[in-house]
Amino acid sequence: MSSTASVQRRFQRFTPRQRFVRWVVLMLSVAAITVSIRHVEVIPEFLYDAPEQLVDLLNRLWPPDLEYYPIAVHEALLETLHIATLGTVLALFLAVPVGLLAARNVTRSTTLNWLAKLILVSSRSVNSLVWALLFVAVFGPGAMAGTLAIAFRSIGFVGKLFAEAVEETQVGPIEALRATGAPRFSVLVKGYWPQVKPAFWSIALFRWDINVRESAVLGLVGAGGIGVALDASLNLFYWDRVATVLLSIFAVVILAELAVTQIRQRII
Amino acid sequence: MALSSGNGQQQLRKPFPVNWLLRLGWIAVLAYIVYASSRLNVSWDRLVAGLGYGGDFLSRMVPPNFSRWKLLLEGLIESLEIAVIASTLGILLSLPIGFLAARNMMPGWVSWSARALIAICRSFHPVIVAILFVKAVGFGALAGIMALVVASVGFIAKLFAEAVEEISLKQVEAVRATGASFANVIIYGVLPQVLSRFIGFSTYQLDSNLRNSTMVGIVGAGGIGGTLFAAFQRFDYDFVAAILLSIIAVIMLGEYVSGHARRVFE
To answer: Is this prediction's ipTM beyond 0.90?
Structure first.
């Protein structure tokens, strides 16, 4: 009898330690959520008439003032697209060297790797709106500040993913090239580039898609693009014009996403 | 000798021929850069002039002024609270919406309407959504929370739906063959296959919400963003530097914590 008792062992998926850590993380999350809900300042009076206000908002938004589109929206929309595209191109040029410095198999210096990673992390930690605020303060309001903001925000994203793609390349072709005595630049162009090319274009397309969305808000802080038209209409309470702007942003974002999906299927 | 004469024909051929298509591509990119720069009034003179201002600007940011730390801390805590609540609500909403959007789980009309909802949530930047919610529910953290919930649904539900579409149907069928109810099929057949990826998306979105919760304040939706924007407009650049440093520190700390939390549940 005692032998069957010892056979009936209980199998568990996780060790007691794992279960304890999971429990602690769960409890901490629950605590964070509870404290946040208790402490956050929500004015209940605002919440009571929220449905009324929402209906009012929709009434003001509809119908959209489509005549505003040719006056101010069309140009601003094109400007937004140019900001996103030029910013992405600039970011690609800046991110490739930084990404190569961050990749441990290309740059064999820990100090340089660390420095490049620091650049990438600081670029990513600052929101594009903050970059835009900084560049507006430096270069004055306008599309130039927006373009630079988009570029500087994208460096971190593109550089990080590019460095990861470079680190995942196979050593074989690179060693073969080195064995022929190829200079460093040739090793980069003929050894690494063919291997990271699909990843690179996919990152570039992905970031462009994100940048189209982000460049639409930069105008709120004066950095050019459709956001300027949005801000102007909002400040004057022309909600029907706001609706036109929002609809055009929606259309452009959907078109950009469709274009990116199509190009990705063709190229990659 | 015989070997070299045999290869003579091939030695004339360049190992890496000039790729004219590629060169044309580079020229097109260059032409676009010139065209777009002139359209956007980006010029070398402005860049140089700006660098002068930039130096002045940086010197006014140093040293960062932490004397109004109470205001700073209040804003940061509110941002954190917005991020936590918005992520919680967003995750809770994304689970059902993501299931409804998965084409292998639901009939066509359900998944298409769920997909349309997700597309609308995704297409606007959180700050634009925050503007609409500020009008709807007034200034304050609530507008920020609602805006970030929308953003979270747009991101998590989309990726979650894609994850559900990639699952292996064998296990689902096996559970169904035992006569399990629909809920049991989902809990025992589908969820175990996608839960770890779902946690991955959720922690990623938590980071993203933390970043954006520091920004929605620019349009009056609560958090540190309002303080930051006000400091910018009053040219209090040393306070701006203090706020930016604290935001970056909080975001990095958040990434560190959420990265560890994710590893626990993997």
So the answer is: no
Which residues of chain B make contact with A79, given a CB cutoff of 8 A?
39-40
The conformation of residue A88, written as its DSSP 8-state character, comes to H
pLDDT in tens, A120-137: 988 888 888 889 988 888
Task: Please give the CATH number for the structural domain made up of B69-264.
Answer: 1.10.3720.10
Q: Which of B127, B129, B155 to mutate to test the interface with A (most CBs of A within 10 A)?
A: B127
What's the domain range around A213? 67-267
Domain-embedded: residue A18: no
Looking at the domain assignment, is residue A8 inside a domain?
A: no
Cβ atoms of residues A66 and B111 within 8 Å: no
**How far is the alpha carbon of A108 from chain B, nearest alpha carbon, in Å?**
26
| Domain boundaries of chain B, sorted by first residue | 20-60, 69-264
DSSP assignments along A165-176, one per residue? HHHTS-HHHHHH
Best mutation target, B58, B80, B117, B135, to test chain A (most A CBs within 10 A):
B135
Distance from CA of B72 to the nearest CA of A (A): 16
| Inter-chain CB proximity B136 and A57 less than 8 Å | yes
Integer Cα distance of B49 and B107 in angstroms:
60
A32 in a domain, yes or no?
Answer: no
CA distances from B242 to B108, B236, B246 (A): 52, 10, 6
Determine whether the interchain pair B53/A138 forms a contact, defined as Cβ–Cβ distance below 8 Å. Answer: yes
Read off the pLDDT of residues A150-181 as tens digits, 9 standing for 90 and up: 999 999 999 999 999 999 999 999 999 999 99
- Within-domain flag for A126: yes
